[in-house]
Amino acid sequence: MGVLLQARGLCRKYGDMVAVDHVDLTICEGEIVALLGPNGAGKSTTMKMLTTLLEPSAGEISYLSHPVPQDLIEAKKLFGFVADQPMILPYVTGWEYIQFIGGLYGFSQRDIEARAMPLVERFRLTESIHKRATGYSHGMQQKLALIAQLVHRPRVLIADEPTVGLDPASAAEMQAIFREHAAAGNGILLSTHLLDMANTLATRIIIMMKGRIVAEGTPEELANREFDSLQSIFLRLTGEPTS
């Protein structure tokens, strides 16, 4: 499998507080990597650094052969980011938002429609796609943000709690779309508090605690270390309850 994203020695400090402490992370073709950890573990900070929204205090990031920030424009063409709070432009319709994001990557309106409409239909947004996005529920905004990011078919899709606010059917559809995207040779990094989803969806799991990676492996490898469940391992490593 080819390496799509590589981070080495990634750190982020806020004064004397260390939010992310020397994290090494790799995403390869065909992988779905779940990033787990309690609130404050450093997951969102790590994702913001990987997507150039936050400058690392130290460390290196590269997408394929493009280092960040030295080759920033080419690197940005290779990833898509779905935030936990979708960054939807105010007062535009859902369809206008998709067209705007697709246009930023240089796609024609015809190509955007061909790529986005099947996803709009799968997420059952057809009746609301031409309404203003500010009237969307959180779950609808999550679906819209994902569709917009998938228009340019990113080699690495990074998603921070993407299923929050989704009904069970939409969450299942999103997971199916993730599997298809990875099966096409792309990579996915997602954070979630849903251990069952991580266990069934992810090909590899990373657990963070206090800014550090404390465990990593396939769901089977993690469970087989002490013949334990993923939930028990998470609790033992983090001391946190799970939902």
Q: Your description of this structure?
A:
Keywords: ATP-binding, Nucleotide-binding, Transport. GO terms for molecular function: ATP binding. With 243 residues, the chain is α/β, with parallel strands linked by helices. A 6-stranded mixed β-sheet has the order 6-7-8-3-9-10, with helices on both faces. A 4-stranded antiparallel β-sheet has the order 2-1-4-5. α4 packs across α5. The longest helix is centred in the last third of the chain and has 16 residues. The relative contact order is 0.18.
Give the helices and strands as they follow along the chain: EEEHEEHEHHHEHEHEEHH
CATH architecture of the largest domain: 3-Layer(aba) Sandwich
Could you give the count of β-strands?
10
Unreliable sequence segments: none
- The strand order across the widest sheet is 6-7-8-3-9-10
CATH 4th-level superfamily of the largest domain: P-loop containing nucleotide triphosphate hydrolases
Give the termini separation: 33 Å
CATH class of the largest domain: Alpha Beta
Query: What is the number of domains?
Result: 2
Portion in beta strands: 25-35%
Largest sheet: 6 strands, mixed
What characteristic shape results from the CA principal axes? globular
The percent of residues in helical segments reads: 25-40%
On the 0-100 scale, what is the average pLDDT? 92
Structural class, by secondary structure, is alpha/beta
CATH topology of the largest domain: Rossmann fold
Number of helices: 9
